[in-house]
Amino acid sequence: MGLHREIRRFRKMGGAAVAGYYLRRLGNAWVRPLNLVVPARFECPCCGWCGARFLNHVGYQETLRNYVCPRCGSHARHRGLAVFLRRMLAARERPATVLHCAPERGIAAVLAANPKISCITVDMAPHTVSVRADICALPFQEAAFDLIICCHVLEHLPADGPALKEIARALKPGGQALVMVPMLHDWESRPTLEFGAAQPRMDDHWRLYGHDVAGRIAAAGLACTGVRFSSFLTAAQQETYQSGGDIIFIGSKPAL
Hints:
By secondary structure, this protein is α/β, with parallel strands linked by helices. It has two domains: 66 residues, no CATH class; 177 residues, Vaccinia Virus protein VP39 (Rossmann fold), CATH 3.40.50. Helix content is 30%, strand content 27%. The protein is built from eight helices and 13 strands. A seven-stranded mixed beta sheet has the order 7-6-5-8-9-13-12, sandwiched between helices. The longest helix is centred in the N-terminal third of the chain and has 15 residues.
């Protein structure tokens, strides 16, 4: 997490809130030695780590227990996505060119392990990516990618429409985009909740998504279907991976 972001939060939230966040993060200190002596119960399908307990994810507004892989840093959503992505790519016969937006280590590892995949990473943040660029103005020609992965990126944008249109433009005909976003708990019965500004206590989210996600993706020109983790993971796998109950929205560009 960048220092500039922490300074911005400190100013918006106050020193006490930020200090409390780091104090709660110290609660993870006991998990690492626990994993050295207690038999493994959980597994990360991103990197292969096994252990007695995942680390807690400490946010500014909530703490998610048994959530973060100690090795690769994957969250619940990444572990479910990794399984889906690995199976999806294994079913492909031909090589694929992939664009990975705001790349996560766990997902990047899945892509790197597949010899049929040529992957380009893109982000605005100052860390190692193939291309540093804005997802709302991708510096790639039209129809450049077979697959685009966009996991928990859109909620950080003041408007998600331009990014979705760029994703659709950069996809080849017949290509697909895997989109994941943070959802309202009762998202199936509510539309997207727009905050009107970035929320520092929610990792600078501009919105939480509702039942209109598929419509937003379709408005960019992609046919959209939703795939729940429970449709491809057994209950035992969901427990072992601590993958949660997320949904992957698949936007497909019509073939010519």
